[in-house]
Specification:
By secondary structure, the chain is α/β, with parallel strands linked by helices. It is built from five helices and nine strands; from the N terminus they run αββαβαβαββαβββ. Helix 3 links the parallel strand 3 and strand 4. The radius of gyration is 15 Å and the shape is globular. Helix 1 packs across helix 2. The strands form two sheets. The chain has a seven-stranded mixed sheet with strand order 5-4-3-6-7-8-9. The protein has a two-stranded antiparallel ribbon with strand order 1-2.
Length: 196
């Protein structure tokens, strides 16, 4: 059994495998691809970035994505995290990536479509709605931009026995819904673009 809140060793291996299979360089603009191996955020456009690989790995390990899960990726950017989530859930799952910037959303969708995972989609986010409420909630929610406070709107979208990983200000939060209760733990400091 894995730890209650921390990373599960078996799922950590799955994350490493997904990151080897879906190379970061496939999700970077041409002029940034030579820097794909650097463990730093890299600029995309309009102030958005591709998160550094060690941060992405840490978030995915904390999320503990099971095969077949229904996953929401808020702030999908280049589509890299969305594709990684798709690899983790497999064809029996579904992943929806949402991106507010229209140009980035269209480019990210193209990147994800090129991966050949029809169970994974990227859509433009509704600027008036945070996340995408669904019946029964999402099994996993990944948020790659930092709000100033934990958004209850997103917490409400986490299913029973579900998890959300989200940076709040500069601290990574794991939100779990267990027996109808919301449990929140913190897991280190990181820097993210603000959640709009």
């Amino acid at each position: 059994m894995g730890a209650t809140t921390g990373p599960d060793p078996e799922r950590a291996a799955d994350v490493a495998d997904a990151m080897r299979t879906l190379a970061r360089e496939l999700f970077l603009p041409d002029e940034q691809r030579h820097r794909a191996g650097e463990d730093h955020p890299l600029p995309l456009w309009h102030g958005q970035t591709s998160s550094q690989p060690s941060t992405v790995a840490a978030m995915l390990r904390l999320l503990q994505v099971p095969v077949g899960a229904r996953v929401l990726d808020v702030g999908s950017g280049s589509g890299w995290t969305t594709a990684l989530l798709g690899r983790l859930v497999g064809p029996g799952g579904t992943v929806l990536g949402l991106e507010l910037d229209p140009q980035l959303a269209d480019w990210g969708r193209g990147n994800v479509d090129a991966c050949g995972m029809p169970w994974v989609t990227v859509e433009r986010a509704d600027p008036h709605v945070l996340g995408r409420p669904v019946d029964g909630g999402w099994d996993r929610v990944l948020v790659s931009a930092a709000p100033r406070a934990l958004p209850e709107t997103l917490v409400d979208q986490v299913a029973e026995d579900g998890r959300m990983v989200i940076p709040v200000r500069s601290t990574m939060h794991l939100v779990r819904r267990v027996d109808g209760r919301v449990l929140v733990t913190t897991h280190g400091s990181y820097t993210f673009v603000p959640l709009r």
